[in-house]
Protein 1
Amino acid sequence: MDVGNRGKKHHIHGKGFSIDKIIPCLVVMMKRGIVILLILITVANAAESVATPDDNDHSNLDENGFDEEFQDYFTYASMMEALNMLEAKHPEIMKVFDLTAKIDENNRMGIPASTWQENMVLLVKVSDGVDSEPEYQDPKFYSDSTEPDIMIVSAHHGNEWPGFEVTMYFLFYLVENYGLPPTDNDGDGKINEDPVDAKDNDKDGLIDEDENEARITWLVDNREIWIIPMFNPDGVIADTRVNGREEIPGGPRSQPIPTSGVDLNRNYPYMWNREPDPQTGPTMDSGNPMSSSYRGPDDNYDDDGDAYYEKEYLPSGIFKETLRGVDEDPVDEIDNDNDQRTDEDPDGGFSEPETVSMNNFIKGVDGNNDDKTDILTSISYHSHGGMILYPWGYTVDPAPHDDLLKYLATEMSKFNGYDPMVGTELYPVGGELDDWLYGKNEVIPFTFELDSGNHKGVKEEIINISMKNLPCNLYLAEMAPLIEIARVRSSSDLDVNLPMINHTQTTKMVNSDNTYTVKAEIANGGNIIKDSVILYYRVSGSGDWKELQMKEIDDEHYEVTIPRQNGNKHVYYYIEAQANYKEADSTDGTVLINSPKYGQHDPYSYFVDISLGDLAGNIAAMILMMVLIFGIIYTGLFKSLKMALSAEKRKNMT
Amino acid sequence: MAEAGEAREHWGSRWGLIFAALGAAIGTGNIWRFPREAAVNGGGAFMLPWLLFLFSFSIPLLIAEFTIGKNTRFGTIGAFKKFAGKKYAWMGAWMMLVNIIIMFYYAVVMGWVVKYFTVAASGGLSQGADTEAMWKGFISSPGQVIFFQVMAICIGTLVVYKGIAKGIERTNKILIPSLFILLIIAAVWALSLPGAIDGLKYMFIIRGDHIVRAETWVSALAQSAFSTSAGFGMAITYAVYMRRREDTTLNAFIAGLGNNAASLIAGIAVICTVFALSATNVEAIGVLQDPAGNQGLAFIHLTKLFTTMPGGVVIAGIFFLAMAFAAITSMISGMEITVRNFMDHGWSRNKSLRITATMMFVFGLPSALIIINGGVPAFLINQDHVWSLGLIVSGLFVFFAVWKFGVDHFRETMVNTEWNDLYIGRWWVYIMYLFPIQFIFLMYMFFSQTITMHPDSWWNPLEPEGFMTIILQWGIALVILILMNGWLNQKALIKPEDVDEDEAVEVQPEYG
């Protein structure tokens, strides 16, 4: 029988060569080949999965979209062009003013309504809604008294260029990042993992490459940031330290002697042309018009109207008249003439259109009309040396707010690595901006000497230096309200006693059947105004923030429940509260605090998932259906199989 | 003639036929199509009509097909010629054509599945893998796709070459129980995951708004029609190898019910996995509704979800192995349908198979190679769109044949034989008369959906999922087949009638 079977097989396959043989051959080959192929595929697949590309290559990273603007130094013309471009692009958050145009030309000193060389000192205001603010009304710039103000100014010295680059970079950074959603700026798949603070927060070898956009939006919305990128355009154009003052024969204010120009940072009427202090030695400013530190001409004007001629009969019989009461009480915090008035007849300063503009601006930013400027703090950029200077500039005596100034300078030095020091430690000066801002206007000012190696630096370093100082600008803007409180209290402590809203999300998802309860703890809550703790929430797809007052549970704990929402929605929320700071009397006495820090721009969020019905009710329906469907199909199947089984038995028996 | 001496092939046992019929019915559609359809169309609201159409559409049609095949002992062309008359041989050719065209791209699909099984089995799925990029990368590399397509065809050829008992029957006897076991493992694993209950709820609770929608009902009917192999010609072809004393009716019930039983398990495995491993219900529903469809679900979303759980990669391997088993058992039935018709023409099984396999490779190439938008197999989608609907037309032809014969007469004389284990009552007659209504409902809904989904391009034959592409391709096929009818009658069937003697059956030694 075996033999027969074999013979049959051969018969099926046919005799001789036939194309029909190919398939049986293939079959045999496949039987062996498939095993080998499977092994090959397995190896190939494994290799494929190992060789996934590593995307840590950031070598061609474009740090900021506008970096191409910073490949070379701005000129006065290209700066104006850039400002016009930005203003046209972002009119709602940025407004450009011509400061020099605000000068009253009928002044006794013959100062024109432009720089001496007929250029403009431009001021940029960055804040939300500037396009709908009231226009400038002489002498007031509109200022929202609830938003803290800061000033950034650069190029007092026209030959120190890196300063206006840093300032322009800051401006670009603010307006170009405003209102952006959280963005993965460096394309590494992570969002906001490395904010601008000069630290490599995510340890990827890159510094500050992915800022939190919400921080910028929040700053612009909650601050007024005043920027003067090129304070001394004449000097920038001529590449001189001093401004464009020249002898103008026959002019209203012709100089009896030629001058190279005035050092604007020596032209503020505070400790102007002071007698040398024995402790500090002579200040670094000069009365010589040809000096590069020329402080400007003497005032020679009787500001307080008390001038008189002192008549004297000299022994020679000559009757001599001497003018007295002119410039007899210079700005030095001393009643030099014992007339119970202090500093009422300055001896010089504000002789230049630029410094007059500064004065107009500082005095003109006064939203609450308390005759004190709203500007809280400032940075003036110079080069070079890598230093953060703070008052005083004229004396070694410590400033009243020495602790606060030192604290802030030290904090900022952590970003850029500069040396924090008192101005006089570099060299003593008179009539300098910071002393005037601090001494006469209560501004907490800083002067940065950028680390550009020399006055100009090199253009390749522009972005580097700009990025290094960006966090200082942001930090100061962020801290402005706290600086104000600390200033009023003469304290260096910015943190203690500031209430903090602590909130931890217990879950980031909720079912559409359920509400969402938010609990917050308020640390150092002593100053919190009780009914000011508000939760704002917004549901995706709608633009409105709704408010819910949070209920006080005890002194430190607050709670509120966000109502049920439809499924497949994101809900965003943040908590806001007001802390009472009556001491901070230059504001309305309260400070707004948020959680998260940037409030509505960086809110907490949770997801409302679609509900598949509550368990108790629907489980029954589900089980019923399962029993029905499974019951019909499986009972049917098994009954059929059983029938088939018994039928087969029956058929086999027959 | 060399084949004249060849003994007729028969199923080794009834169970072989049942497993083969189950294998044909249970395909990839049970695993990746049914769960999506059930989830998208209202859960329980879909299940009820789906169950209804099993009894009102699929099983009655399977009974008719089994009966025709058993009585004519011919492949689809011969069956129609002999049963419906010489004028209608082209209907059998249409059946074969629809089937072979589906096989052209089915081999490509099975290749994808085999590829993904090899990837899962070799540990190629790592946590957090970008499965979308992986899928698009794979499908856009012609070498890989064709390699696995050829592999799928080779596996199918190997099985069909071995014949009915030793090839198809033996393969199904191993693979179908294995498939059930694999699906049960995947389902149990899915049910063990926290959150699986949401999947069960979504799958079974009747969502009231869906039950009144025509879309729900048409989807349920389409799923039942596509899934059970009714209209495929499978039942006709496999019945050719039945013994005279074989049952047809109970077997039809077992095939239909077994198919739906597998669908339920696969549905639980897929839907519960999706709900348990998705972060949110919204995401889970999004996955099930992804317009990227079946391939998107299996190769992108499920693959991704499996990688999120330890142990998930093992289940991924099990899942794709089950898919591969489902695909291979369906593919061999499709190949056998064509091979049977060629064999009726007088060719040997080898020659028929060689030609079938070659056609599957050559005409499958456009489906494998035409990839648009970086990862959309446009041609394949078009062919699936056009020809799976062709199955419904095939079903109508079967109804036509029965109607022409006389439905009740058919039931009395041909269905209810002494060998049948299940007596078919007059209900079957009434249900068969419902067939044209169901056909018209399905076609009308399908076409109007096609038009409303592509309001600007439905008339464009180049729109892969448009209306005109169906009409054009069907029209060409029908015109050619009707013109060929005379040739089909004269030349297509040269198998001597005497081979069909049932006496040969009795002397045939049992296999095994």
Protein 2
Amino acid sequence: MKKRRNFIAWVFLVPSFVFYLIFIIYPALNAFRVSFYKWSGFSSNMEFIGLKNFGRLFLDEDFLRSLENTILLMVIGGIAVFVIAFIFSVFLSSGIRGKKLYRSIILFPFIVAPVIHSVYWGLLVFSPSSGLLNQLGKLLRIKPLQDFIFLNSKHMFWSALFVLVWVSVGFYLIIIMAGMERIPKDLYESAMLEGMSEFQMFFKITLPLLRDVLTVAIIFWCINAIKHFELFYSFKGIMPPRELWTNAIYIYVIGFGHRTPIFQLGYATAIGVVTFILIIIIAVIVRKIIKRESYEY
Amino acid sequence: MKKFLMCLLTVILALCLVVPVVSCKGAAETTIAETTVAEATTAEATVAETTPAETTAAPEPKTIVWWTLFNENEAYADVFKEWVADYKEIHPEITIDIQWIGRDNISKVAAARGAGEVIDIMDQGVGGMVPIIQEGQTLALNDYLNTPSFDGNGTWLESFIPGINENYADANGQISAIIYGLYSYGIFYDKKLWSDNGWNPPSTWDELLALCEKIKTESNVAPITIDPADSYMAFWYWNLLVRLGGTGTLYNAYMDKTGEKWGDQVYLQAAELQQELLDKGYFINGFSGFTYPEGQKRLATREAAMLLCASWVINELKDIVPEDFEWGFFSVPSVSGGVGKTTDMAYWPLGWVIFKDSKVAPEAIDFLKFCTSASNAQKLAEATISLSSIKAAGTSPLLQDMKALFDDPNIKTFLTEDGIPGDYAASPFFKNQNDLFLDKISTTKFIEEMKKGTKAYWENK
């Protein structure tokens, strides 16, 4: 009977496993191989150069800058997203009326295509001469706001990050709220009877019981942050400036060029390999930091 | 029964998996290396005259696959469709299969050909096709260019503006790209705005500075506008380099693998001239925060007096400019002491290549000759407000000022950014040029970074 069950399980697992091997594992292994070559991608001529692509990374200022942007996006963006999502979730869990409506409004930016956000914020909100914010400053006679250039080289990264945080909060709010709704209400009732404040209940009850959900959400955010592409790429029109280059954008630029042809697929793949390793390291670190304990309730 | 059903299910699942894998493998095997090369075929291909009048008994139907960088709703597409329809009338047996790929054409062509897709012709900004040419994937066209043109008045090569195609020849003089249209660079302005204010186009750098000062102090209009995009911010610098040191100045700096050539005075001087424009506040306020194409729009709205750009800007702004806007153009002024002239004109070309493994190379050549006839070339130039590569072809009335320069017998054409390759342009050139333009580094720091960057570029090559 057990043998038969195992056989049936394998029958259904094997096709997916083979599909995974062919379309996920094999290309990933091939990417590792390509990262040791100099290759333009136009022909089968590939020149083996060993670890030269990886060695070049440490001296490549554009790569280091894009890595810095990626890490800032992940850390600062992540803190902002989760803090705001928690604030919203506490607010929405407090028993207010219209909770579903508020949740839908907060989630709405997430379901709109990133390019639409880029056009809206880049051209309509942040534009120095006709944008909403500068015009508001002009109307209210707030000179710093009127003259502030949101999209110059100093500020454009933070402006784009602001938009990304605004877009992402809704999704993580849903995940956190789903976790919070699983927590039994009687724990909070008992805590209130014991005289705990809201603040204490959040840190002593809510956060510990959300550990599993938070681990998944944080790893998810980190992976998405590291491979983020669309919003930053389209934020300043058709040619993303270096200030907005993330790892993923730099891989694309080096591999294919943007307006100017570069076509260094071997080097781009090496960056991809480094990005992959970075994701693994971060996932391990996050799991170590947020230690898993099982709570039964 | 259950056992039979389980076995049947296993077989069906296995087939679902195996069949697509096998067909993918089959397609992957048809690589560039394995496709029957047309090298022997093209060597044998008649280099002799191919005129539309030539017909053979019962000609074999053939298809030419053309991947273009244009989208189907663009002005270029309308003309391409007309060409295809007109050619079909002459050669009913030839079908031109155009695929509207978009601006990422080169990347998609690379991927498609790697997967075994048949593509005979592609077009792109010719600089963007240099990697594919350098890989030896394209047909050398010199022999074909020495055959009669479609119009029959001289060789095909002679029908082009002198040097236009040759500038993209390789070190052995092999020409692989046929240019069908080009944009040139210079300073664009509104003649109406200028005549209302009594401003006149300058011919020297000092006159330009004086004019900018006049515009800044006597009007509400910013003297110069610009988009803070990668290559756009470099326009002033490499044009100034050419005016100071002549064509090839930037290219020579690129070619010096030690990077020390950047220490020559001319490179610093060009940076300082550009910096003078910035320091004196001649660029429109807030330009660093513009999102492309906001900068060039300021010319259309008359918030700025002039824009250094390529002539594509006329087409891009044609729906925004007011009705009384009159396009004016003048070449980047000469600089005192410089060897470059105002007739040194940079151009950015659009062109075709034919792939070496194309099985219809002779037919493709004939089609391209047809497209580059004077009448067809003029049709394209007028519809797209571009300059034609064909001497005898006219252009849109909006480009007459520029056309006059190209008709000047003293004209010397050179490539955008003096022909430096795309990867060098991206970094270190644009990277440091952007930092200089956005006031992140000084002119001397720019030179140091270019020296370092050039050396590192060649070390990594």
